[in-house]
Amino acid sequence: MIIHYGGLALLLVIIFAENGLIIGFFLPGDSLLFLSGLICATQPELLDVPIEMLMLYLFLSASAGSTFGYWFGRHFGKRALERKETWLFKKKYVDVTTDFYHRHGGKTLILGRYLPIIRTFAPILAGVIQVEFKSFMFYNLLGGAMWIGTIASAGYFLGQFEIVKNHIDLIILGFVVVTTAILVNTYFRQKRRKQKEQS
Prior knowledge:
Blueprint: H1 2-18, H2 29-42, H3 51-81, H4 91-104, H5 108-111, H6 118-128, H7 133-158, H8 162-165, H9 168-198
Helix pairs in contact: 1-2, 1-3, 2-3, 2-7, 2-9, 3-6, 3-7, 4-6
């Protein structure tokens, strides 16, 4: 378990990476947030910080990660996103995020927080397309606060119930299934829309 072996420091590094580093898209951000709140409530020896401080640290880490992603996108992102596909990087990741941006604009930095891959590529793409920094930071901070506030606090609240403590694995699996299903649906909707435009 990431939190068990790496504690708060590794948790913050992963949240930072998933919110702005190209290589961070595969990291389990949602489940880690939920689990961190749950562990804070049930196993304070692993995360010996009050929930308020934990959420503040997570917020700062997520916001800093997205800000780095924006900076990277502004200076190096175009070349990075146009590179050849590898087993790790797929062009469809950029396409899905771009489509999401076209439909939601700056709100992508809020809504996209709840979607794997889009969460990682949205700030980078914002830098590539030269979104005004003030506007980016508004959505970045608001999105980070909402993402951390809803998921980590939900884990902390549900950690008060014994049934949740006894079924952590199923809950984490549920997070993965739901977020993946939403992402797959977004990808296929975009694909169908492109096919209609071409026909």
